[in-house]
């Protein structure tokens, strides 16, 4: 029967599940529409037989909010949502926004700054040994060392600040299924280093095939030109055919490795993604709160094209707004 994915234990029991395979933690309200990245990823996983439960906008002050479904069988998925949380919160003048189109009733303040980092830290405190996989615009744009406009400083890869185990960037449908199937086969998350469109942490890089070594993080801090050189190297390694693995070093025996981008979906694969049983609206529990404003722009729209360039932005079909 066509329905929303579980958001409560009762929903899960109605489906006859004892536990979910994945718990998907998202910074947006739960909107099951194909223009919302988490909806696409969760439905793609569902189509491959995986059980996905949703925790939307958890209370980051309470680690129990992340434990609604207990320990998932395979892991947690984390996305800040369709927008970078900092763009969601602040204008370019760094003034606080007064509303949030991706929250019920348009209410601001339902997610933390740097939401991906905060959610992952919360999960790792509660479930230390459960794999955590991050994706979406916030993770994709911060997958390697990056300049952070909001703090006006260079920051490390979000993999290090969040404590996540794996990052999926670019269009994430193929990568997330491959990762799910690897976990389901019994592979440990630290051994899943072969997924195209992924970034992982490593203590050694001897097994990385033909890598390009980016400037060390310390070198980036010392000279802005080193950062410019690093960025250019990343820029020219965005083609899924010719790109090579990129390696960034953080002190002794600490590396972040970016695999080449995932290939684009074929026409049939793209059609299959958009034929999945989306409810095409927000979860009914939000109705009393005024609904989710962001659905108004897309509720009756048709998808006519999609930017397949990973350099453009994110893994999970993001949209952004400014002003």
Provide the descriptors you would attach to this structure in a database record.
single chain; 25% helix; disordered C terminus; alpha/beta; two-stranded antiparallel sheet; nine-stranded mixed beta sheet; Rossmann fold; 13 strands; 323 residues
Describe this structure in words.
The strands form three sheets. Strands 3-1-4-5-8-9-12-11-10 form a nine-stranded mixed beta sheet, sandwiched between helices. The chain has a two-stranded antiparallel ribbon with strand order 2-13. Strands 6-7 form a two-stranded antiparallel sheet. By secondary structure, the chain is of the alpha/beta class. It is built from ten helices and 13 strands. Helix 2 crosses helix 7. The chain is globular. The chain has a single domain, classed as Rossmann fold (3-Layer(aba) Sandwich). It has helices at residues 9-14, 37-47, 85-89, 115-126, 137-141, 158-162, 173-184, 217-222, 224-235, 267-274, and strands at residues 22-26, 31-32, 52-56, 75-79, 132-134, 146-148, 153-155, 166-168, 198-202, 212-213, 246-249, 255-258, 281-282. Strand 6 and strand 7 (153-155) form a beta hairpin.
């Amino acid at each position: 029967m066509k329905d929303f994915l579980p958001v409560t234990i009762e929903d899960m029991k109605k489906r006859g599940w004892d536990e979910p395979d994945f718990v998907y933690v998202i910074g947006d309200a739960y909107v099951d529409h194909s223009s919302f990245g988490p909806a696409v990823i969760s439905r793609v996983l569902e189509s491959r037989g995986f059980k996905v439960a949703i925790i939307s906008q958890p209370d980051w002050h309470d680690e129990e909010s992340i434990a609604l479904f207990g320990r998932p069988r395979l892991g947690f998925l984390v996305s800040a949502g369709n927008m970078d949380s900092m763009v969601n919160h602040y204008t370019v003048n760094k003034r606080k926004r007064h509303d949030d189109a991706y929250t019920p009733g348009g209410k601001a303040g339902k997610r933390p700054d740097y939401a991906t980092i905060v959610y992952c830290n919360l999960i790792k405190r509660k479930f230390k040994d459960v794999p955590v996989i991050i994706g979406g615009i916030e993770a994709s744009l911060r997958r390697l060392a990056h300049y952070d406009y909001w703090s006006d400083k260079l920051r490390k890869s979000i993999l290090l600040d969040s404590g996540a185990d794996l990052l999926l960037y670019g269009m994430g449908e193929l990568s997330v299924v491959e990762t799910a199937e690897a976990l389901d086969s019994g592979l440990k998350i630290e051994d899943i280093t072969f997924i195209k469109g992924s970034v992982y942490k490593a203590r050694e890089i001897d097994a990385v095939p033909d890598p390009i070594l980016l400037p060390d993080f310390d070198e980036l801090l010392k000279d802005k030109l080193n950062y410019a050189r690093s960025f250019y190297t990343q820029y020219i390694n965005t083609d899924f055919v010719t790109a090579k693995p990129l390696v960034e070093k953080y002190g002794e025996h600490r590396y972040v490795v970016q695999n080449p981008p995932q290939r684009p979906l074929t026409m049939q694969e793209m059609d299959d993604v958009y034929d999945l049983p989306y409810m095409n609206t927000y979860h009914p529990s939000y109705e009393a709160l005024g609904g989710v404003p962001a659905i108004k722009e897309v509720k009756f729209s048709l998808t006519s094209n999609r930017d397949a360039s990973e350099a453009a932005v994110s893994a999970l079909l993001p949209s952004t707004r400014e002003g």
